[in-house]
Design goal:
alpha/beta; 20 helices; about 625 residues; four-stranded mixed sheet
């Protein structure tokens, strides 16, 4: 019995095919991607978000990784092709055995049995190769995604944090929602879908080319209304998939916009839940449970509304795809079985025809079946592009000019405005030297805290020149200090790294600010913002001031949650421990004034005055 191909020479032939196919596929992939990334909107977004991963310093690692994955995809097609020939040999050997048994031809029966077991040996070799390839492909694919995810996460967080974009992003014309979700979830989803779609498309194209040759060799002439169509199976499968795919794209087009809206709605619902958890005590004091429940219900209703539309269009899309897939199973059998009964094709030929038809139909249908996945890919990519774009805009917002000075703070022609352009402070000029201290006073909304934001380069609606010690020499403390997650050691040391001060120093400093009861809890990990009272948090901020020992400090209502006696003790402590500290305090209490040498009165409409304190 003659095999469908010469298996003795298959190793050399397959290696030659693999090298040729990989080279051609790699070049074609690069050309197609270069064009697509240039002419499409999503391609432009992809280049701006993560193109540097494949063209910048990380390319030495990413391109070889992807090259190996591309080689694995091409190899998977070759294995499928060989499996189709092995299946042909197996079924043909069984058909010949049945015929030999019917004729009573023992010699032919022995040859058929030998051919069967030979085909099983071929199957075993191919199965081992495919299993090894699958395992290696999974491992390398995950390693590639991890490397890409690490790189892109660092890039995204860098853009979000640099130039205080994470704060100043609120001032741009179109602020974005949920940057945390975009960095964590959208990056992961976009990378996974990028790999799946790109390699899936490559596999589909290589499969179409490879199995078209098989289908061409096995396809017979089909006569329709007296007209013979040679190689009819080949033409039929392409026309069939073209029609099915066109209809599928028409049905699935709304899924792109719905996917983006669904991600935004779920992110807003999740953010509302996080807000509820973070503000649990304040909500409980207000007895705001009913209002919170109403807000959550409204946001979740929006999620469900969009999801219902997704289900509706998804049902139509899936139904059409499934119907097209099921119909494609029967076509090659119906079209080839007359030739089998006529004796021009073996059972193995018919089976291989059906397999080749299915592979071509499935590969061409990859683009149709992946439409919803591509829609989700575009949605996540668009959200990441929005994050990058918003971060760029936020970083480019104007900020006050800052010059590094040593042992002094100087404000020259500083003007502070509201977002609507109304002037809060105009032409502020001030010079402070080591040991000087100023308390900033004024009515609520007059611009006291906004002045500190301007000096800290956070407020975009300002101009002028600020001279102050460099970043490590200047400390800004808000009304309630930020407490990072982790142990108490990290909370006290912030913004310095944990371990920058010895535990003995930390304990002594906590005792000085009357937090001695916490001195034994440095190793305790907790959400300290929920554990410490506002007054304790403000005392912890004074501990940071003593640990960092800056040249200049700007304090914003940092004693609003402590009693006047403790306020006096804390200010006296820093004036004693840090006698050369340049101190600027924003405060409403008159009791703060005595710890300063001058009072800056902001009187509204841009006016201000500097009055010495006796």
């Amino acid at each position: 019995m003659r095999a469908s191909r010469d298996w003795s020479d298959e190793l050399v032939a397959s290696l030659h095919w693999l090298l040729t196919a990989f080279t051609v596929t790699g070049v074609a992939f690069l050309v197609v991607m270069a064009v697509v990334l240039r002419i499409t909107e999503w391609g432009r977004h992809f280049r701006l978000v993560t193109g540097a991963f494949f063209t910048g310093p990380a390319a030495w690692r990413s391109i070889p990784y992807f090259g190996v994955l591309l080689l694995s995809a091409v190899l998977s097609v070759r294995v499928k092709v060989l499996m189709s020939y092995q299946g042909n040999d197996l079924l043909t050997s069984l058909q010949n055995a049945a015929e030999a048994f019917g004729r009573g031809d023992s010699a032919a029966l022995d040859r058929s049995e030998t051919a069967f077991w030979h085909s099983m040996i071929v199957f075993t070799v191919l199965a081992v190769i495919d299993v090894a390839r699958t395992v290696l492909d999974y491992y390398l694919g995950q390693a590639f995604e991890i490397s890409w995810r690490r790189w892109l996460t660092e890039r995204a967080t860098g853009k979000w944090i640099v130039d205080q974009a994470y704060y100043r992003i609120r001032f741009i014309d179109a602020p974005i929602d949920n940057p945390d979700q975009r960095i964590e979830q959208d990056i992961t989803d976009m990378i996974a879908r990028s790999r799946a779609l790109s390699l899936g498309a490559v596999t589909a194209v290589v499969s179409v080319v490879s199995f078209t040759r098989i289908l061409w060799d096995l396809s017979e002439t089909l006569t329709i209304f007296g007209v013979g169509i040679p190689r009819a199976m080949v033409f039929f499968v392409f026309v069939y998939v073209l029609i099915v795919t066109t209809v599928a794209f028409w049905i699935g087009h709304p899924l792109i916009g719905l996917g983006f809206r669904y991600q935004a709605a779920t992110a807003n619902f999740r953010y509302a839940l996080v807000r509820l958890r973070e503000n649990a005590e304040r909500i409980a004091f207000y007895r705001g449970e009913d209002t919170e429940r109403y807000g959550l219900r409204a946001r979740f209703a929006q999620v469900l509304r969009i999801y219902r539309h997704l289900v509706l269009f998804g049902t139509r899309f899936i139904g059409w795809n499934q119907a097209a897939t099921e119909a494609a199973v029967a076509f090659p059998w119906v079209m080839q079985v007359p030739h089998f009964f006529a004796g021009t094709l073996t059972l193995g030929d018919v089976q291989q025809t059906a397999q080749a038809f299915g592979q071509i139909q499935g590969s061409l249908s990859f683009f149709r079946n992946s439409y919803s996945e591509f829609a989700a890919f575009r949605a996540t990519l668009l959200r990441l592009f929005g994050l990058f774009e918003a971060s760029e805009f936020a970083g480019a917002l104007p900020k006050i000019e800052v010059r590094a000075l040593s042992d002094s703070v100087e404000l020259r022609e500083v003007e502070v405005r509201r977002p609507d352009g109304a002037i809060l402070i105009a032409n502020l000029n001030l010079r402070l030297r080591a040991g000087d201290s100023v308390v900033v006073k004024g009515l609520s909304g007059s611009g006291k805290t906004t002045l500190l934001r301007s000096i800290a380069e956070m407020w975009p609606y300002t101009h002028g020149v600020v001279g102050r010690p460099d970043t490590t020499g200047t400390l800004f403390i808000s009304q309630l200090p930020y407490l990072p997650l982790g142990d108490l050691r990290a909370a006290v040391s912030y913004p310095a790294a944990p371990g920058s001060a010895s535990d003995a120093t930390l304990r002594a400093t906590l005792t000085k600010v009357q937090l001695g009861q916490l001195a034994t809890r440095l190793d305790e990990e907790a959400d300290w913002a929920d554990i410490l009272s506002p007054g304790e948090q403000q005392r912890l901020a004074f501990a940071r001031l003593l640990l960092i020992r800056p040249e200049a400090a700007f304090l914003d209502e940092v004693t609003s949650a402590v009693d006047e006696g403790l306020e006096f003790a804390l200010y006296t402590l820093i004036r004693t421990e840090l006698p050369n500290l340049i101190l600027v305090s924003v405060a409403h209490r008159a009791t703060v004034d005595r710890h300063h040498t001058a009072r800056l009165e902001i009187t509204g409409g841009g006016a201000w005055s500097l009055v010495p304190i006796q």
